[in-house]
Amino acid sequence: MTTGQKELPAGWKWVKLGDVVSAISNGCSVKQNWDANGYLVSRIETISTGEINLDRTAWVELDPTQAGKYALEDGDILFSHINSLERVGNCALYTQDIGNLIHGMNLLRIQLDYSKVNSNFIKNYLCSDQAKMFYISHAKRAVNQASINIGNLKLLSIPLPPLEEQKRIAGILNKADELKKLREEADKKTQELIPAIFHEMVGSRVKKGKELPAGWKWVKLDDVCLLVVDSEHKTAPIATQGYPYVRTPDIGKGFLNLRDTRRVSRDTYVNWTKKAIPHAGDLILTREAPVGNVAVIPVNTELCLGQRTVLLRPDQKLAVAQYLCYLLLGGSVQETFHSLSSGATVPHLNLADIRKLEIPLPSLPEQKRIATRLNQAEEIKKTNAESNKKIEELQSSLLQRAFRGEL
Question: Which of 17, 30, 194, 304 could make an SS bond with 272 (beta carbons 3.0 to 4.6 A apart)?
Answer without folding.
Answer: 304
